[in-house]
Amino acid sequence: MVARPALRRAIPSSRTLLHAESRILRSSFSTTLQLQQKPNNNNNNNNSVPEYAIPDPARPTHFGFETVTEAEKRERVAGVFTSVAESYDRMNDLMSFGWHRVWKDHFVASLNPGFSPLTSSSDPRAPQHILDIAGGTGDIAFRMLHTAHILNGNPDVRVTISDINPAMLSVGKQRSASLPASQQAALSFLEANAEDLTQTKPLGANQVGYSPTTGVPDESVDLYTVAFGIRNFSNIPAALREAYRVLKPGGVFACLEFSKADKHPLFNTIYKQWSFSAIPLIGQLVAGDRDSYQYLVESIERFPSQEDFRDMIVDAGFVVGGQGYEDLTGGVAAIHKGMKPRRK
Amino acid sequence: MMRPSSISLRRPARQILFSSASTIRAAAPVPTAATHRSLSTSTSTGSGCTCANGSRRPQVKQTQKLQQQQQQRQHRNAYHSYDHPSSSAAFTPVEESILSAAYQHVPSHGFTPSALAAGARDAGYLDISPTILPEGAFALIRYHLVKQREELAARVSELFGGEGHVGARPGLSEWEIRGRVEAVTWERLSANAQVIGRWQEALAIMAQPSYVPLSLKELALLSDEILFLAGDSSVDPSWYTKRASLSTIYAAAELFMTNDHSPEFMDTRAFLNRRLREVNEVGGVFRNLREWVGFTATAGVNVLRSKGVKI
């Protein structure tokens, strides 16, 4: 609740009334109360989607430290990732000293995809559909497949990698060639805008075996993941609502993203120094592209704090467990999880 | 509500003592906002502080609403209130629904992700749903600890013959309190019986470094609850020593119980009794030792004086 005012500042809210109501009703555990009311408000009825969660190409948003329109941000982000796609993985290693692998491993391990209880009464290995948004180069998707197929012995887990950027997707497609055939078969690639998953395009739409554009249907996904992608979205509330739409009741939204290390001032100072001076320089030397990496660090700086982002997730109708997020490396990155509640 | 006891104290001191004891469990030495609030309320209303305490509260609540809510959230368990039982907010409704369903699977699956996933299915969620619980399988252990602690009050009041309010009562002698501590502790240990086959693995999880602080906190809350329910109202340094020694004994007895195959855990009960008696004996030995040292020293000085040494 402490973070609410900050959220309201961050998002121009047309739902102040709802906030006020829930404040009156609330017990000491206000978030839950609100969660219970939300689903009816948000989802069954599209009219009540708040205005800020409807994508509008003309609405101002930020691109790093600049203010641009949503449409312009989409184009410029596309430009950034097209230019860094080839060197993306090498750059990640250099910028984070390889630590991003630890984060990603932990992220996937904490989700434990493909895990089922071995009960005698039901099918012991339930199929799962994982949608990896902004998963271009496949880092998360390949780990998911490994955990599900090999560690949990559940071959009925499919992963769909979705990215708005075909350049990133083709890098992922290339890398997937080294996977075992069974895992390749469980993998599909999708070119889509996360704010509107009804309009999708399979990668290389001419290829045999791909269905034509159908979009991701309602309530078809068990696990929706987005790792280091959501801060690049033009309209984050819209993307969260789209995630809510495609998830099955009980499905989990999981997000790994850079966050704020404000709790450790000294560490934060060093981290900020590193990210603002060293990362653009490394980008210039290794990838030959300073501006793209300048944008990356600025976009990290502009992304909401753990609490604010948690409130945005709750606002989209998800329920969270505990405080709703987990800090990694003192808050440099954070994992946010939310579950779509069951229909009443 | 507490009845005023017959101890004669000066009036303001008595008011403070009673009001704080009725609101704050055995005057928990943490100076919370709640402490200050109840003190100021009772002193301003003068006599009859026990009733005023309850009726005055809403007014105070209005003036300090926001501040108070935040503080109550932080210090939810730092004091015991008869009028305002702390809300059971350890788990959100969704967590509660998953965990309560998963708890049914503990005897067969243990405190494991399997039990959580099976519970999630029963509650109408997916296999993946329990991953939103930040502590994983430990959440299930915490659920057991919290639920059993919360249910203890009802079971104890049944045990002591439905006295209405359990807890601090001035009439109890120290000897009676000891007996009640034993009974309440045993009541709590018995609640582990249904999951006892899985309790060793739970203890192993609780001993993992990241869960140790939460486990210890839960243990402290439990020993506090047991002493409160047993009617202990000490406000001296023994407040700490009693809780510390009871925590140790409880943890030891719990561990003993995991290997106990005697009918109805008789051996565990005997073990518990021996440990509790030892604490009292050790306490007695220390008291006697102090007395003996004091006596010998005085006597020695007197002997020396009788020999003409100028002391």
UniProtKB/TrEMBL annotation, chain A:
Organism superkingdom: Eukaryota
Location in or out of the cell: Mitochondrion inner membrane
Presence of the UniProt keyword Repeat in the record: no
Record keywords: Membrane, Methyltransferase, Mitochondrion, Mitochondrion inner membrane, S-adenosyl-L-methionine, Transferase, Ubiquinone, Ubiquinone biosynthesis
Job description of the protein: Methyltransferase required for the conversion of 2-polyprenyl-6-methoxy-1,4-benzoquinol (DDMQH2) to 2-polyprenyl-3-methyl-6-methoxy-1,4-benzoquinol (DMQH2).
Protein's UniProt name: 2-methoxy-6-polyprenyl-1,4-benzoquinol methylase, mitochondrial
NCBIfam families: MenG_MenH_UbiE
InterPro entries assigned to the protein according to its UniProt record, in alphabetical order: SAM-dependent_MTases_sf, UbiE/COQ5_MeTrFase, UbiE/COQ5_MeTrFase_CS
Molecular function GO terms recorded: 2-methoxy-6-polyprenyl-1,4-benzoquinol methyltransferase activity
Originating species: Neurospora hispaniola
Family: Belongs to the class I-like SAM-binding methyltransferase superfamily. MenG/UbiE family. Belongs to the methyltransferase superfamily. LaeA methyltransferase family.
Quaternary structure annotation from Swiss-Prot or TrEMBL: Component of a multi-subunit COQ enzyme complex, composed of at least COQ3, COQ4, COQ5, COQ6, COQ7 and COQ9.
From TrEMBL, chain B:
Compositionally biased spans, kind Low complexity: 32-72
InterPro entries: COQ9_C (IPR013718), COQ9_HTH (IPR048674), Ubiq_biosynth_COQ9 (IPR012762)
Stretches for region Disordered: 27-88
Pathway(s) this gene product operates in, as recorded in its UniProt entry: Cofactor biosynthesis; ubiquinone biosynthesis
Keyword Mitochondrion among UniProt keywords: yes
General function of this protein: Membrane-associated protein that warps the membrane surface to access and bind aromatic isoprenes with high specificity, including ubiquinone (CoQ) isoprene intermediates and presents them directly to Coq7, therefore facilitating the Coq7-mediated hydroxylase step. Participates in the biosynthesis of coenzyme Q, also named ubiquinone, an essential lipid-soluble electron transporter for aerobic cellular respiration.
Name assigned to this protein: Ubiquinone biosynthesis protein
